[in-house]
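User: I'll paste a sequence; please echo it back and then give the predicted structure.

Assistant: Echoing your sequence first, then the prediction.
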Amino acid sequence: MALDPRRVREHGRRILHEGSVGSFALHDIELPSGHRFTLEVIRHPGAAAVVPFLDEERVVLIRQYRFAPGQVLWEVPAGKLEPGEAPEACAARELAEETGYRAARIERTGSILTTPGFTDELIHLFCAWDLEPGAPEREQNEWIEVRDIELGEALAMIERGEILDAKTIVALHHAARRAGHRADDPGIP
């Protein structure tokens, strides 16, 4: 039997919580085989993430405290789409809010589904160039340090397990490809 999502039936849904990052619900699902089960699903409005280039070799990363894993993580600037906001506009807004930089040029590099086993969150990935510095306008719940780093070193940090954030890993690999780097390039530390 061919996989066809149109053959999956939803018999009911119970929303348990609606909040700033989306809704959390229980979905009563039936597969074409007749097997029924309940799925816990987080519906998310989507997000954008951006790798800002200071020049051909240096990028801007942030170190941000994240409560859920209880860690300070290396990340690219990113955030949730506001209602009706285009992903590119979100990337530009988050870049400015979290780092203070404004970009004259932003280019889409791809998209990722973060954890499709329980959420529909789709993050749109971008690179930004021709940056102008400014003052960040962070939200009160953000605890962030801004750092500039060589792109090659950022890729090496991924290999050493120092960068764990999935969107950042994928965004940096897409950015490296755009910049003409390869992750297996012997010139990258």
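The helical segments are 87-99, 151-159, 166-178. The mean pLDDT is 93.
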